[in-house]
Amino acid sequence: MPVEACETALRGAELAIRRGAPGEAERALRVLLRSCPQGGGSRVHLVLASALVATEKFQEAIESLGRWKPGTAAPGETALAAQLKAEAMHRGRLADDYAILDSADAAVSAAEAARADLILCRALQIRAEVAAESGKLRDALQARTQAERAAERSENPESRAVARLTGGYCLLVAGRYEAAATTFSAAVPILRDLGLLIELWRAYNGLGMCSTGLGCMKDASESFAQAFTVARKIGDNLAICNVWNNLGVVYHNSGCFQRAAACYERSAELLASSRFRRAPFYVFANLARLAMESGDFAASERWSTLCHAGAKESQSWRLIVGALANRADLHIAKSEPEWAWPLVQEAVDIAGDRWVFVPDAGQFARLRKHLLWASTGCKREENESHRDIPGGMGVSERLEVQAFEDWTRSGRDGAALREAAARELVDRGLFGVLARLLAVGLRFSIVPEPESGESSAQLVARVFRPQERWALPEVDDLVRQGDGLSHSA
Description:
With 489 residues, the chain is an all-alpha fold. Helices cover 76% and strands 0% of the residues. Helix 3 (43-54) packs antiparallel against helix 4 (58-67), helix 4 packs antiparallel against helix 5 and helix 12 packs antiparallel against helix 13 (237-254).
């Protein structure tokens, strides 16, 4: 194949990757490799690695990068290789936290040396994610500052848009949901105009997570619906899996338990035929929680076991802590606190002062307080040091912790029953959070006693009728919407 034709094919593949068609790019590049074998110095290996990262084939991407052995590489190509390696290691969990962090740092340094602003912004996104997952918020916020500087000096609209995404993500993990939502919203029209569908999906997904954190479930469902449509258009199964799970959380927190189950099950179906390393934890944890609230302890035990196995495989301290908390809640719901407290203590020891970064910080904080309360009883002075509720927690997380505190203090020394947090959960329509609290044995005067054999989810559904409260989209409507757009694309 002539050199000019090869370069044309490479440029076409790069454009396809940026426009959300990495699968087509991968197929074209493999045809190119078969028809015209490339030496180690060929950029085909580098561009193929980019396509493989975008299609979640992370180990294959690392192997393709290993075949790229240029004699004298341009600084920008070296930076791109470092960024792709860091992204593959991070998203595929192909190493431990320290190795991934080193790889992300190397990618940022290479991009800065090459003065490649777009690659730098992408590398900083990875650096921010790795820092947040390592419990290093200051490093994540520093990545945001670096991305903003890169955006200011760059004339490339793509660089500026990606930098905004990084800024939005950093604000999100810091718990600054309103500021993050503003940043993501500003990025959406730019990304749409540029045709950057993968980044557009991330912006919509980020918006949905911000709205979930703010307790605005209707807004969250609309953003996730947009994210679902984009994910279906580009055929990204990991993105689709994540959206189904995130939508499930929206329905779940809103008390629409059957719709939540449908979303989680669709997400689990995608996992059955995938190689995703971290997504299983979140789906299995949510299925375990839903089964517990529905009174199906056997199913909850099965999902909890899968959740714990997925967490261990991921090597992520955050997910391991989340899995321990998940199992502890199930033991409490089964009236087996003696089995729960060692798990909670192990989770506390692992998390340390990084606990606000665990997947469900509200659950963790409640369990930590429950352990202390069970150990010390009602000695207020001994519990005072654990009454911290960080401002970065989401609304539902904060109310879950406050509702537990109200429950431990209610009726003490003849004091009037205080249920402000539980009442706010009802006022905000966060009935799923209330169901979890009821499942682990908390009781509130605003909720009548359950009927014989009635689970906490059934009790909440009977008393408060959440589906009448929330005008959330039907799951099947989302599927039809996504199908219609993907077929017309």
